[in-house]
Amino acid sequence: MDSGRNMAGYTSDKEGIYILVELLVKKGVKRVVLSPGSRNAPLIMAFARDKRIRHYVVLDERSAAFMALGMAQQSGEAVAIACTSGTAPLNYGPAIAEAYYQRLPLIVITADRPQEWVDQDDSQTIRQNGVFANIVKDSWQVPAELRGEEERWYANRLINEAINCALKGRRGPVHINVPLREPLYGQRIYPEETVRSVEFLESAPTLASETWDSITERFQACRKVMVLAGLHLPDCRLKESLDKLAALDQVVVLSESPANLGSGRHIATIDRVLATVQEEEKADLAPDLLITFGGPLISRYVKAFLRQYKPAEHWSVDCSECPADTFKALTSHIHLEAADFFSALGERVKGRESDYALRWKQKKEVAAFRHEEFARLAGWCDWKAFSLIWPAIPAGTALQLANSTPVRYAQLFTCSRVVRVDSNRGTSGIDGSTSTAVGASVVNAGMTLLVTGDMSFLYDSNALWNPYIPARLKIIVMKNGGGGIFRFIPGPSGLEELEECFEMTQKVDVEGFARLHHFRYFYASDGDTLGKVLPEFFAETELPAILAVETPGRENAEMLRAYFGKLQHG
What we know:
- The protein is α/β, with parallel strands linked by helices.
- The protein has three domains: 10-189, Rossmann fold; 215-362, Rossmann fold (3-Layer(aba) Sandwich), CATH 3.40.50.1220; 378-569, Rossmann fold.
- It has helices spanning 15-26, 41-49, 61-75, 93-102, 149-167, 209-220, 236-246, 270-274, 279-285, 300-308, 338-348, 356-377, 382-392, 405-410, 433-443, 454-459, 498-503, 510-516, 527-539, 553-569, and strands spanning 10-12, 31-34, 54-57, 79-83, 106-112, 139-141, 174-179, 187-189, 225-229, 251-254, 289-293, 313-317, 332-334, 398-401, 420-423, 448-453, 473-479, 520-524, 545-550.
- The protein contains 20 helices and 19 strands.
- The chain starts with 9 loop residues before the first strand and ends with a helix.
- The chain is globular and about 75 Å long.
């Protein structure tokens, strides 16, 4: 027997489960997050006894799925999740949707009742097959009881298709539903034999030479080229290629922190730079050619700007079948990975006479000057706290940003010391930010820092009920009394229901959560205290740590408005 399996060799007697685990191993899956249950007992048994896949057991399926998402995000590898039947799979939904829009490969495995018992009032039985149809790349229902060679071939073929689908092209989650018939706890030893693995070999994408000639000619004809980067995993080759393009006089590169480009040649603080642009300047600063790549954008300002001042051409560099037409100006879909496209483009194009990059650079410098002026005058608020936290983050930290307020504040500050920035901006929900950070911290060898709001922290507090949390996880909770974003965005801020129905103003006992889950606790409610406590918080090595930063909820929105007023008017 394979030395990676348990010593006795006993595993589930459901042969379809055996084939599933063997193929996951063969295709490079190294981690699975399990949730307890009865119907999924054969899955638990098979995974827990196989030493080739590391298993984690997390009771709350919603938290478990987000934890797996964090692992996939950091490792770049597929991660499996497995749960029991009934409503348990439905708890996977938010994380699966996020993984779909972040393009992360989750292998979602759900145990099910036999098909004949669906809608027959049997316990823990719902219409489970295809339940994630709109948020996975595809779904399969795989027989677990195999009574002959044809059924073995069929199960093997379906599982090969499912795992290959998650990993090819535009990566993403897939769903494998496994109906299981009682008895569920039978065991057997399988003979040493090879389970057939169908290898998927993806060809290196390229464009025809005449297509490249056309792209180069159209690029060179433009005096104003804007490259706009959305959510993207770190990629050194992509960063180098964009740095090369950003050196051209006619090119400006705009990026956000989750784009993971981290270059002084780019404009990484889009909102604060755009705030300095006067209405009469916008048409002239709008691009002739817009090139976009990556996932969703955070900045609503840049979306509004480019929807109003549409480029003559918009190229989307995207490996999906249907790219997003975010600015209602799409003219070309370039079906290549961003690193491949920009690397090849950089070798073909050259600079031309233009002051486009210079004018954007000037706006960037004006914004930085006004930003620093405001920092000297700002009173205690969320903005002030972020201005102190960001320079204190230790070099090499992997940063996780929760929705909704923290990720927006983060775009106003530069932070070149972190190794990467991640945020659940695929669907932008607050529901799994902490669980994702926990999963990320399990994979990361260095420090993982989550910056979250009190509502997001409370919503996902089950993430702390987890035996795998390493001491290198740090959490900063912006304790501002509720959903502060609703005091700033147009609409809710003027409603009489603001506090009760939008903000849900309340005191979150962050210290109680820290004590319950054995985190070391730190607290600050003013700038001087925060400045003193941050070094100790980041230096803690024995236990994971939580820092609560309390700010005045009512004043935060006023200060943020004052900040943007300062940027706009000087």
